[in-house]
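Ligand: L-homoserine. Inputs:
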Amino acid sequence: MRPVRIGILGLGTVGCGTVNVLLRNGPEITRRVGRSLQVIRASVRDLQKRRSCSVDNISLTQDADSIVNDPDVDVIVELIGGHDAARQLVLQAIAAGKHIVTANKALIAVHGNEIFRVAQEQGVMVAFEAAVGGGIPIIKAIREGLSGNRIEWVAGIINGTGNFILTEMRDRGRSFDEALADAQRLGYAEADPSFDVEGIDAAHKLTILASIAFGIPLQFDKVYTEGIAGVARADMKYAGELGYRIKHLGIARRGDDGVELRVHPTLIPERRLIASVDGIMNAILIKGDALGATMYYGAGAGADPTASAIVADLVDVARTLTTDPHNRVPHLAFQPDALSDLRILSMEDVQTSYYLRMQVRDRPGVLAEIAQLLAGQQISIEAVIQKEPAEGEDTVPLIMLTHRVLEKNMNAALTQIEALGSVQGKVVRLRMEHLDSAWK
Ligand code: NAP
Ligand code: HSE
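Predicted complex:
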């Protein structure tokens, strides 16, 4: 059979990783597919730039449009990132009848509803395994492996750069900026690293996970998003003393009142497996009603791991090239006309436990005053630690863990606490989840 001919848009970290894996594992892949996968063309911005892969048999161009419209190309692999240029090229390629493979979570989270509708009409596949969890085959696991389950919740460490930074700060005492510079040098970070640091990249990925887990449209604008910039080393230390680790989590949960979609730093009990997922590694916990909780772990970013997912998608596309477009696995796991319009909850209506840290005057009655304000909002305290004052200081750090409460009650209590004369400055508030299999 003739080879499947591939055009790659973008030959950076992931693009070159894909070329390298295809070259290295070519014979093995051909044995799996029954035909070979060949990259025949690729587009870049700068033709003079040194590439970390061989381009000997690839025709390079700066004109991405010419690849998208090339009748010799069967599949387009979009690896330039961002949503505007990428959307334009992908829609053009779909109109030209090409199948698409992409690692671009921003594109899928923001424009996926439109892209899948058009792809469905054209009978082409849009595969995006590499968009979530780097090399972890999480899209396939949810869409196919767990399709017998009603999925209750998904919680994951889904940004490798953020996890790498938090781990380097905690374990090696490195500064935030040093760790971020390393993540950039190693090819883990987004072109605009604020996407990693501010939680936007994780929110893109959570949007995709929630859609395929619950059968809802992609709704990136409804995700509550907080990044890692506010996580201080002191909080990592106090959380450790209380038996917790701070991880940046994406959480999607289907409750009775609607769906929670949230991304924020979260305290997790140290004994949970996911609490030991460090560095660039990602892990996604999924609770299904039939299977219970399962965890998927692996490299969340980097050239070869991400290429592993891209090549798996290429194999899928190659295998299904001849199948009836109406009988393929649906893009978003559920039939396109069967997506549900479940309500997405506002953050104020979400219930979690909390870690609070405040700087308070070291005098009798302060703790009671704070406890009373918490009680007034139906917030019960799980643990308290109060530190010794530093020499010459008359304030001390007070750390509290609370039981679950609605976020709006916590907001009200914190406004009152911050107004107390005995409390200095703002209260640091981190959310806390136990992630046990009984959580519904
Ligand atoms: P990258 O290293 O910056 O590579 C981007 C490539 O696209 C470069 O070859 C660049 O050309 C080209 N390019 C950029 N803007 C372009 C434009 N407007 N028109 C045409 N070409 C353009 O990025 P990457 O890390 O490989 O990431 C690619 C995609 O994969 C992104 O969507 C990213 O979110 C996603 N992703 C990355 C990872 C990872 O670990 N890096 C993991 C999972 C998913 P030049 O080389 O000539 O500058
Ligand atoms: N910048 C992303 C991360 C790449 O660090 O997780 C993988 O999607």
